Every structure is written in C-alpha cells, then in structure tokens.
Amino acid sequence: MVSSCIGLLYCAFYLTVAITHTCAVKPSYIEYTTITGFFLQDDPATNASTFDYTAVNFGLIDRSYDTDSEYDPNHRKTQWQRFDHQVFRLNRQSGQHIQYKVLYMGRHGEGFHNVAESFYGTPAWNCYWSEQDGNATVTWADAQLTSNGITQAQIANTFWAKEILSQKIPVPQTYYTSPLSRCLATAKITFSTLTLPPRKPFIPQVKELLREAIGIHTCDRRSSKSAIHAAYPTYTFEPSFTETDLLWRPDLRETDSAQEARLKLLLDDIFTHDDSTYISFTSHSGSIAAILRAIGHQPFGLRTGAVIPVLVKAETVRGEPPATSIAASTPAPTCTTNPTPTPKR
Question: Environment class of residue 74 by beta-carbon count within 10 Å: exposed (0-12), middle (13-18) or buried (19+)?
Fold first, then answer.
C-alpha cells in the first residue's frame, strides 16, 4: 500500500490509519451511505449532462416528509425548511454511532486548464500538454479561473442568495476548499458576499486531501501555503498543511482507487471532528466523483461551476474495515500521435 502513495504526507495519512487500527483495543471504521429519495441527483433517471441545479432548487425533490404533520401542519414552510427538520429528526432519533450530514459539493468554475484540454483534445492533453506549465498564450499551472469560470461562480453566488431569501435554505455551517487556486477563488466568489448568520460566517478551511488527482498535471500542483495565505488571508489551514506541495510528483499520477481512498480519509476526518450538519466542499470533478463513490452514490458528473447537495448517513462500525485494493500510481500515457504538429502552410 505504501508503495502506491504519492509523497510522504500521503503515506503518513495511510500509516496513521493503519496504526490506529492495529493499536486500538476495539478497532472501528465509518461506513457511509447515501440516503436517496430526497434529491434528483440520487435518482438514476436524472440526466447529469443536462442537470441545472439553479432550475430545480439544488435538486431537492418537491415531496412531503413524515415529519411535516408535527413541524408544518399549516403548510407554511418551504421545501428546504421541511427538509431541514427531517434531517434534524433523523439525527435526533439516531443512535450514538450514527450521524447524518448534508454535503454541499461544488465544482470549481471553468479554469484555463479546462479550456486547454478542450482545445488540444484529451489524448494530447494527457500525454503532453498537461505536463507543461502552459503554452505561448496562457499559463495553466495551478490553473486560475477564466472569465467564464468567474461568471459560473457568480451564478452560484446569485442562486445561493436567492435560496437563502426565498427558500430559507440551511447555509453551510463549515466550509472546506481544495488548496488549488481555481477552488480558492470559486469559494470566495460564491460565498463571501452572502448575507450569512453571525454564527455561521464564511471562514473556509483549506484541506490538502480535497484536491484533484495528484501528479503529472501541472494544473493540479498547488501553490505554497504562504502564497495561498497572501491571496486569501481570511482562509484557515488544517494543522498538517505544509508550506510546499509534498504530494505532487511530475512522473506519477494518482489512480482512481487511490483518490477514492484519499477522499474516504477526508470524510473520516470531517465526520469524526466536525459536528456540523451542513458542510460545503469546493472541489473538483475527480474528487467529487471519488466522494460519491465513497458514500455509495450513483455516478453523477458535475459541469464546471455546478453544485449538488447529498444527504449522507455515517455509521461507526466495530471491527476491522473491509479490505480494499489501491492501485499504484501510473506514469503519463505515451502519445500515439504528435501532440504539437506543425501547422500546414
């Protein structure tokens, strides 16, 4: 397992978990389940490619709940208020080893790397261009948002403001963001100007494990802690966050199974130490997909700038966790055609 790690820090996370399971008198693990029936994105009939969260109340299904009779007998509450009470009741009636959380998962707005991959095509991007810091026109190392990406984040901001006012949607109690620039910017544009309760301010924490697949692609190589702090002085960092990027390597890329294991560790950390019920993740397509796999959700791809909530049940189970297989990191694919052909005259 250690041989498949990317960087010493990543190995340390795995070793910490291994030591915990070895030394604990009564080992345990957290089992995650997506609670379906509340959101359109949980329904196999929903087409992810045409899903527009702004047109369907973040996907919250218009339905009744078994708690409506006690909470809203006069039918005056919004759908989100009634859902919030349902989640409250689920947590109140659950045992001490079960908890329910709502994860608001937002993908960053369009970055310059997204435009570059579309321009060159995925094969040429993966075998050559993703290893470059940019081209003669633009830089995509730790990619910044394009103007379109900024607009996408502004759309999310406008929709959140509308939902807070009209639906009284439960706002995130905790905010987490990937350390990559496109997510740091998306989170700020989305949340920083909203009218939030004084007890739930927008003070995000930068989480190393929330980043995109690690290695080879320069767009996924993060900036230093000092540079992030200089650009976003109100953001906080988890205690283990290092000054330089110890995880990224230019010759190996994290596999899907390793990414899922990493995001499972992130969930374990948050569900163990964060008492919040409503949590915001600003992350990436690959990492959100890995979280969805870890919580037993159906595959559901997000377009840049899109947001989906998911209701998650987490149960602490006594015993050793199920065995998992983590594939070793892989080198970049070999180009089968020239990725930099000379233009024809």
Answer: exposed
